Amino acid sequence: MKNQAEVRMRGFLRRTPVSELRLLIRKHCGMLNKEYVSLEQLGGRVLAERIISPENVPGFKRSAMDGYARRAEETFGATSYAPMEFRLLGEITPGSSFEGRVGTGEAVRIMTGGPVPEGADAVLMAEHAEEEEERISVLQPVPPGKH
């Protein structure tokens, strides 16, 4: 047990440079051969070449978290001591859409994967707001593009 503790406290006696490690890896690890398999057999495999999609998937801005779709600049200055209030217009779930537009002083509850509605440029994390009836209190600002 004493030797293990000494090694941990001192670190390694010799450190191998990254360039030398790369040579060792190339020497001892060969390239895998390419093989063509059906889509059903792809699980657990590594691509042999890069694939670049000709279009964005999904083709819309979507929320990466549960929260509230908002205009970011309207949240600047919000704190838990001085929260800002906004009217809640509705809710967006994955696979659904919101027909309206987020305007001044408004927000829309949004779930992970839901499309960010028109007029909103950020999603405030649910943990950074308090919801009561049809209003939310924003407890901290959110930067534009955060969703």
Describe this structure in words.
GO terms for molecular function: molybdopterin molybdotransferase activity. It comes from marine metagenome. Residues 17-147 form the MoeA N-terminal and linker domain. The chain has a six-stranded mixed β-sheet, with no helix packed on it. The protein has helices at 2-10, 18-28; strands at residues 67-70, 84-92, 106-110, 122-125, 129-132, 135-138. The chain is built from two helices and six strands; from the N terminus they run ααββββββ. The mean pLDDT is 90. The chain has a domain at 67-138: Molybdopterin biosynthesis moeA protein, domain 3 (Beta Complex), CATH 2.170.190.11. A hairpin with a 2-residue loop joins β5 (129-132) and β6. It is 14% helix and 20% strand. It is α+β, with helices and mostly antiparallel strands and 147 residues long.
